[in-house]
Write a structure and sequence with these properties.
- This protein is of the alpha/beta class and 321 residues long.
- The protein has a domain of 224 residues: NAD(P)-binding Rossmann-like Domain (Rossmann fold, 3-Layer(aba) Sandwich).
- The protein has 11 helices and 13 strands.
- The strands form 4 sheets. Strands 3-2-1-4-5-6-11 form a 7-stranded parallel beta sheet, sandwiched between helices. A two-stranded parallel ribbon has the order 7-10.
- Strand 1, helix 1 and strand 2 form a beta-alpha-beta unit.
- The chain is globular, with a radius of gyration of 19 Å.
- Bound molecules: nicotinamide-adenine-dinucleotide.
- The site of nicotinamide-adenine-dinucleotide (NAD) has 29 residues, from helix 1, helix 4 and strand 5.
């Protein structure tokens, strides 16, 4: 197949590109390298089955030219993560809403299947655990910039469902805390990258608050596997899926594990959220995926244990780059 991956030079996107190239597909990537890196796709630039365009998904003429040619679209390009969106909320909303609108409008025009990369953030501050796909999104006030990422992803999902109602084949994957090689080494937005960097530098690992907040860390091979299943299975159309590992880990446990695996003498220090995110920041204490629907419909199950995934990620931070 000919496949477009928007955001294909990014962390998850570039792993998806590798997996699909290995399956023999022809890949097109549109990425403006806002947070993506040429290093992530450097090894493919000479490959005749790989075509990279360094431009924005907001360039409709370019997007039309490419979407017309492909059979399938994975839409991953976005301003990603709460921290980036807080720093530049206007760019975040424009890219994450208008960008998705452009992809879906053109997919509808040329009748191409689209897989939309969404996020566990759409559940907002819901205290429910585990979170099932049909559960409520509980977001904070619009005056608090933090929620605009979740809201934009929720609008993307609404748009995708609206086009599905018109008959367009779409699937939505909600990623839960993906980690692995090629994570942004500056650790901007990823606690795994931040801890590995700190541990390798012998600096204290900075844990927000009491560190008892939990997340379900999902190795990138599992994130990619779930995305491909959602694209390939007819039964996945018109639905959203939690793509995550169900093992719940406190942030303090994660810090201790990274410290142990790196063999670092670093200490662990607790810092208030306000220092990084400002006074009105609200954190979600738990975010656990209910994976039963993904298992039932996609046959998806996250398989890589946290220790193994962290080892591979640490190896990459040490010598893979
Ligand atoms: N990493 C996670 O744990 C996680 C969790 C939930 C959802 N997601 C979603 O997965 C997708 C991929 O995220 P990622 O973690 O790989 O982050 P990433 O920042 O590495 O990838 C996003 C990519 O989009 C590109 N991009 C941004 N604006 C663009 C534009 N206007 N035009 C073209 N390209 C543009 C960036 O350069 C980057 O390569 C995103 O949609 C994100 O919201 C990721």
């Amino acid at each position: 197949m000919k496949i477009l991956i928007t955001g294909g030079a990014g962390y998850i996107g570039s792993h998806l590109v590798d997996a699909l190239i290995a399956q023999g597909h022809e890949l097109y990537v549109v990425d403006n390298l806002a947070t993506g890196k040429i290093d992530n796709i450097q090894h493919l630039l000479e490959n005749e089955h790989f075509h990279f365009v360094n431009d924005s998904i907001l360039n409709e003429t370019l997007m039309e030219r490419i979407i017309e040619q492909v059979d399938l679209i994975y839409h991953l390009a976005a301003v990603v993560g709460v921290k980036h969106v807080i720093d530049n909320p206007l760019r975040g909303i424009l890219t994450n809403v208008r960008g998705t609108e452009i992809v879906l409008e053109l997919a509808y025009k040329y009748w191409r299947k689209v897989v939309i990369a969404s996020s566990s953030e759409v559940y907002g501050k819901s205290e429910k655990a585990p979170l099932a796909e049909e559960d409520d999104s509980i977001l904070g006030p619009t005056a608090v910039g933090r929620w605009s990422y979740a809201l934009a992803k929720a609008i993307d999902e609404h748009l995708a469902f609206i086009y599905h109602d018109k008959g367009l084949p779409i699937s939505i994957v909600r990623y839960f805390n993906s980690y692995g090689p090629r994570l942004d080494p500056r650790g901007y937005g990823s606690v795994v990258a931040k801890f590995i960097n700190q541990a390798l530098a012998g600096k204290p690992l900075t844990v927000f608050s009491d560190g008892q907040q939990t997340r379900c860390f999902t190795y990138v091979d599992d994130t990619v596997k779930g995305s491909i299943l959602a694209a390939n299975l007819k039964g996945a159309e018109g639905q959203s899926f939690n793509i995550g590992n169900s093992r719940e880990t406190t942030i303090l446990e994660l810090a201790q594990l990274v410290k142990k695996l790196v063999g670092s003498p670093s200490g662990i220090v607790h810092v208030p959220y306000e220092r990084a995110y400002g006074a009105d920041f609200e954190e979600t204490r738990r975010r656990v995926p209910d994976v039963r629907k993904a298992e039932r419909v996609l046959g998806f199950r996250a398989e890589v244990p946290l220790e193994e995934g962290l080892r591979k990620t640490i190896d990459w931070f040490q010598c893979g780059r």
